[in-house]
């Protein structure tokens, strides 16, 4: 039986999980520099450890209400096709271990677009579900290309 470790993060009241192997780092929120004509879910760019990386607001990407930044807001940095990208989340405070038997497949009610990046539903206990997502698949090819074209030369 395989066990995976997930980083738990929140968007509003919902909890999400991403495979810890995909996470490079979790850092405190920092204000980003806005870019002209960027897609609405791209907050901008930040200087992270001497690298300029794009920052994506996951709430805007998922069409959720964005209530702004709090002291708990974090940036999850992942490697996306060889480049670092940051995702703004409301909170990222713990890791959990889940056995395969505690992960259900993505429910049929979810649209094809969302099935691309929702990998399953983790059951932590009777009242706590974790929506498991693959941040590498949150953006479609066109959006990834836009981010690549945004990179400052």
Please render the helix and strand layout as text.
Layout: E1 3-11, E2 14-19, E3 23-28, E4 42-48, E5 51-57, H1 58-61, E6 74-80, E7 83-89, E8 91-99, E9 103-104, H2 112-117, E10 118-125, E11 128-133, H3 141-150
Question: Which characteristics define this entry?
Answer:
11 strands; 153 residues; single chain; mainly beta; 3 helices
Summarize the structure.
This protein is mainly beta. It has helices at residues 58-61, 112-117, 141-150, and strands spanning 3-11, 14-19, 23-28, 42-48, 51-57, 74-80, 83-89, 91-99, 103-104, 118-125, 128-133.
Walk me through what this model shows:
- By secondary structure, the protein is mostly beta strands.
- The protein contains three helices and eleven strands.
- It has a six-stranded mixed sheet with strand order 8-1-2-11-10-9.
- Strand 1 (3-11) and strand 2 (14-19) form a beta hairpin.
- The protein is globular and about 45 Å long.
- It starts with a strand and ends with a helix.
């Amino acid at each position: 039986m395989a066990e995976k470790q997930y980083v738990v993060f929140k968007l509003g009241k919902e909890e999400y999980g991403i495979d810890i192997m995909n996470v490079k780092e979790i850092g405190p929120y920092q204000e980003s520099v806005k870019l002209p004509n960027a897609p609405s879910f791209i907050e901008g760019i930040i200087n992270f450890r001497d690298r300029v990386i794009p920052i994506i607001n996951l709430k805007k990407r998922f069409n959720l209400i964005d209530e702004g930044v709090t002291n708990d807001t974090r940036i999850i940095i992942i490697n996306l096709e060889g480049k670092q990208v940051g995702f703004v989340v409301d909170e990222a405070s713990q890791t959990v271990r889940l056995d395969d038997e505690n992960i259900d497949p993505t429910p049929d009610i979810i649209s094809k677009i969302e099935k691309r990046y929702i990998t399953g539903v983790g059951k932590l206990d009777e009242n706590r579900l974790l929506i498991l997502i693959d941040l590498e698949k949150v953006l479609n090819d066109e959006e990834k290309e836009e981010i690549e074209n945004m990179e400052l030369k």
